[in-house]
């Protein structure tokens, strides 16, 4: 294994835009949920007439879908990701909108399918508003306490309740006028094998350790580096929730 400084420097200079995680190949791994979100997404998009993908990142998930609906729109709140999404998706006729999810700039009842893989914070009222009657929201959410073991190594013990609770999200969806017809949860093993992988993921997932820098957390990083050099991977667990919800009647228009 290369020395600590070399691995950290490489991770600090690597690109972290978009939602492409191939930089971690051979350095880290994550078990996938059993339901096959990307496969199910492709099946649903192939039969939709008008679809919206929220928090699309760099557009990688939608770009991999073979058949898109006649009207396909995506949103992304971070401009570097939106730029990447335009390059990937506009050649296929996809509209890329640089916006957050607090207010979606689309008329009521525009889409028969709204999707998202790992939305930042689902704006349920907005999702319900832009869905047509009998339209579907289909998404894979990050669950509560995801990567908690790694996060607590840097921040210390964190007390519940944790954000992204699927029970609370179900309540919020129902209050917005959506009927949750299916929900599944999964806990998936993550392994990191060199310190560069950990630095890179903390740069990419900035909400895990919000004040992260390699200088601030050098003792914690070196402790993990020593563990991995001794042949022990750093193990954490991601949590995921699969949601399917339907718009059963028109919601009251939101301000």
TrEMBL record:
<keyword id="KW-0489">Methyltransferase</keyword>
<dbReference type="InterPro" id="IPR029063">
    <property type="entry name" value="SAM-dependent_MTases_sf"/>
</dbReference>
<dbReference type="Pfam" id="PF08241">
    <property type="entry name" value="Methyltransf_11"/>
</dbReference>
<dbReference type="GO" id="GO:0032259">
    <property type="term" value="P:methylation"/>
</dbReference>
<dbReference type="InterPro" id="IPR052939">
    <property type="entry name" value="23S_rRNA_MeTrnsfrase_RlmA"/>
</dbReference>
<dbReference type="GO" id="GO:0008168">
    <property type="term" value="F:methyltransferase activity"/>
</dbReference>
<feature type="domain" description="Methyltransferase type 11">
    <location>
        <begin position="52"/>
        <end position="138"/>
    </location>
</feature>
<keyword id="KW-0808">Transferase</keyword>
<dbReference type="InterPro" id="IPR013216">
    <property type="entry name" value="Methyltransf_11"/>
</dbReference>
<protein>
    <submittedName>
        <fullName>Class I SAM-dependent methyltransferase</fullName>
    </submittedName>
</protein>
